[in-house]
Amino acid sequence: MNYCRVKYDRVLPSQLGIAVKSTVLLLITFLTFKLSQILNRNSTMSSSSSPNDAVQRILSSKLYFDVPISKVPLIYSSKYDISFLGIEKLHPFDSAKWGRICGFLIKDGVLDKNGIVEPLEASKNDLLVVHSESYLNSLKYSANVAMIIEVPPVALFPNCIVQQKVLQPFRNQVGGTIVAAKLAKERGWAINVGGGFHHCCGGRGGGFCVYADITLCIHFAFVRLNVSRVMIIDLDAHQGNGHETDFSNDSRVYILDMFNPGIYPLDYEARRYIDQKVEVVSGTRTHEYLQKLDEALEVAAHAFDPELIIYNAGTDILDGDPLGRLKISPDGISSRDEKVFRFARERNIPIVMLTSGGYMKSSARVIADSITNLFTKRLIDTHVTGT
C-alpha cells in the first residue's frame, strides 16, 4: 500500500473536499472489511488441496490445450484489460497496458494479431490447486477485493460486478501464465503479456495481486510437463513475497529475487526463503543495476540447474516510476530482458516471461520495445511459420 502526503498549510477547498472523500471511502472500506471478516468466521474453513486432490485437479484442467503452429507463443486476450467506470484509474497501475503492448507490437510489424494465443480463464477448480477454499470465498466480499487491489471505492460495488470487471480479467491472465509454461516447453520460450502476480500466495493476496499465477504455473508444470526443477528470476522492483511464501520449503524451486528492499511489501519473513537475494536500493542507476544482474546470473548458473525458468519482468524499475524508485533507462530494461533470455538460450532452458508491475503509461511502449529487441536479436521468433 502506498500513502500520499498532503501539505495542509496550503490546502485549497477543492483539495480538502477530495481529501475528505478519500477518508470516507477508506473508512467505509475498513468497516466493510471488518464485517466481511466476521461473516467469514462463520463460514466453513478449509485448506488448499491435498497433494492428491491437486494432482487430479491439474490433470482434469482445460488450461493446457494444443496450440497450432500458426500461433506464436505470445499469450494475450482482450479480456485481460480492466475497465471499471474509470475507478481503475485510482490505482497507479495501467490496467490497459496489456492491450497497448500488443497494439504497439502489431503496429511495428513484429506481431500478427492472428498469431496471438488466447488463453482460457482459470476456473475455481484450477485455482484450488494452490488457493484455499476460504481465501477464494473471501473474494466474494467486495471489501476484501478492494483491499487487495488497493482501490477503496471497489468496496461499494456489488460483488457480481466486481467479479466480472476485476476478478475475471485476473483469472484470464492466470490462464495465460499457466499455458505459457506448456508453450515454453514446446517452443523454447513464451511470453504472457499479463500475469506476474508475485505478491499473492495460496492464502492471501495483496499489492494488486489477487491470484498466485506463478505458483499455479509451476505446480501445473510439475504434473503435466514432467518438470522437477524450476528457477524463478524475479526482477520486478518489489520483493516477490507471494511465491517465496508458497515455495518456502520446496527444494525444486530456486528463487533469484532482485528488488528494492526499502519499498512494499517489506515481508522479512518471506525474505528468508529467497535462495539468491540481490538488493538494489532506491536511486540505483542502469549501469550498476545491469552489473549486479550479470553477477547474479553468474551465481545462479552455478547454483542450480533448472528445467524451466519463470521470468517476472516488471518494468517498475523504470526511471520515474512512482513505486519502484529506481532509475533504470528504457534501453536498460531491454538490456535486462536480453540478458535473461540469453541466459536461458545459452543453457537451452525453456523460459516464460511475465510482464508484472509497471506504474507509468510509458511502460507499455518500453515492454513492446524490449520484445522487439528480443526478436531483432533472434532470441524469440514472433512470425508465423506455418499452418
Automatic annotation (TrEMBL):
GO terms for biological process: epigenetic regulation of gene expression. Its main location: nucleus. GO terms for molecular function: histone deacetylase activity, hydrolytic mechanism. The chain crosses the membrane at residues 12-33. It comes from the Eukaryota. It is found in: Nucleus. This is histone deacetylase. It comes from Cannabis sativa (Hemp). Pfam families: Hist_deacetyl (PF00850). Gene3D superfamilies: Histone deacetylase domain. It catalyses: N(6)-acetyl-L-lysyl-[histone] + H2O = L-lysyl-[histone] + acetate.
